[in-house]
Amino acid sequence: MYLPILILAFYSFNASRFSATWEGFSLKWYEILFNDSRIFAALQDSLAIAICAVGVSAVLGTLMAVGLARYQFWGKGLYRGASYLPLIIPDIAIAVATLVFLASFAIPLSLWTIVASHIVFCLAYVAVVVSTRLSGLNPHLEEAALDLGATPTQAFLKVLLPELMPAIVSGCLLAFVLSMDDLLISSFTAGGGANTLPMEIFSRVRTGVKPDINALSVVLILASGVLAFLAEYIRYRGDQRRSV
Amino acid sequence: MSTSTPTPSVVPKAKVSPRWQQKLGHLVGPLVLLGPPGVWLLLLLVIPTLLIFQLSLIPGIRPGQPMDGFGFGNYLNILQPIYLQVIWRSVFFALGSTVLTLLLGFPVAYWIALMAPKRWQNLLLVGFVLPLWTSSLLRAYAWITILRPTGVLNSFLSTFGLPTLDLLNRSSAVFIGMSYSFLPYMVLVLYASLEKLDKRLLEAAADLGASAPQTFWKVTVPQTLPGIAAGCLLVFIAGLGDFVVPELLGGASSMTVSRLIYNQFLGATRNWGLGSGLSMVLILAVSIAIALLIKYGDRDPESFS
Asked: Which whole number is the average pLDDT over A81-88?
């Protein structure tokens, strides 16, 4: 599983422009990478989009998960079905649909249209992760808080929310990674207004192997490794707390 | 907005309003919690999907044209041999990588779930799932470095005097790339299923004189069939809609539905009607797969999340 990634990392230190042959250790691709302003601009766009989208999704996704767990109402099955759609429908179809929607209402494409479209799937992932945690939670905790005189808002903020926090954080991490990774939805909703990191990488590697992209991969893989470790740690802690 | 029993006029007003308030109170909670995300999904997911359905019924519409006319022209267009071939190829890629991931993933999941030491299980599983956290684009890109004619694989082969392989920009590269991308999903789902397997059944089968292969085919496989079905459908769906792998590794000969859709919107040929029609076909195919998953898959929905 790790071999392709390791090979990529190995060749990012290769001095040769054509990475098949090894021509000695070199950091020059990293040097080129860190002086590449296009890459940094793209990274900035990607981070801005991911942070905005995940921030909004954390709130909306949690509300949705709690709402779906708590209330029975007409059309609940339909609502729940719609909330699973972003996880099921292929990216390309979501991307196309969003583009057509934006075009038919003449909404200009920009960074914000990407954020709006990313919220759709980020929200769904956060909701799924939080729902899983909710179903394992003791429902009497909140009732106890209400019986002891807490207002519903207090009970939500002081009892339910802390219990859900690990799930919210790991849902957000997942959504963040997916948002940073998304190529199709961003490409369709960007217009000329924004250029995300996956879009930049895609446009470059389309025409073949680029050593500076190898270097970029290593940096990004390290970053996502840290995130993954963080997420697993939070999950592990959450599991432990639950089993106590 | 109407109460089912009309309030009798004899009831004093003071008594009516709390009931109304209560009723409103019951509505406020769901509205606050479910309203905003619901509106968002409706606006940016449900309505857009309905819109492309509408668009798919307007033959050959291009950006900027008025949305009028009605017909099944786009769908008839899709039935042409060139497009049918593209759809068939997408299905072929998805099926092939499903089989490959099953063949590769089952032994791994089996080993982790039943044979590896207990305290290593979680770590092994995390190790297998970790690559999912890295960019799918970069994981596909890594295979370009390996598979291209002057790539790592061929320099490795030629140092041992073996004939070189020309794999990039062919179907084989797509199979390799897709299997690599989706293997973690398969292992995860199979593991969840194998872990629940009642080990006493295996012992019982062995005690009753079944050979190891017999135990495997008659006990293990039937018991984990729902998990196998779930994993296969998951990979199939992911493979069907995949864009990055066929685009980067498949070359011009590996046109798939998602690449074709991409071309109708962002590529040279701009035919939104055809693109929408193809998207609807893709959504339909995925829906059928999901319906099968719900019907035959693992009864425990938690294993998917």
From this structure: 77
Enumerate residue ranges in chain B where pLDDT < 70.
1-33, 55-78, 149-152, 154, 161-167, 267-268, 296-305
Q: Give, in words, the CATH class of B75-304.
A: mainly alpha
Residue-wise pLDDT tens digits, B117-163: 777 777 778 777 777 777 788 888 888 877 776 666 767 777 776 66
> CB-hemisphere CA count at 13 Å for A36?
20
Domain spanning A26-243: CATH 1.10.3720.10: yes
Distance of CA A92 to the CA centre of its chain: 17
Q: Is the distance from CB of A79 to CB of A68 less than 8 angstroms? A: yes
Q: pLDDT digit string (tens) for B118-130?
A: 777 777 787 777 7
- Answer whether B135 sits within 8 Å of A220, measured CB to CB: yes
User: To the nearest whole angstrom, how far is the Cα of B67 from the nearest Cα of chain A?
Assistant: 9
Q: Residue holding tokens 């479209």?
A: A117
Closest chain A residue to B46, measured at CA: A82
**What CA–CA distance (Å, rounded) separates B200 from B87?**
45
How far B15 CA sits from the closest chain A CA (Å)?
A: 23
CA distances from B182 to A13, A89, B65, B90, B94 (A): 28, 16, 40, 15, 10
A and B: number of Cβ contacts within 8 A: 213
Percent of chain B at pLDDT exceeding 70: 70
Segments making up each domain of chain B, as ranges: 13-56, 75-304
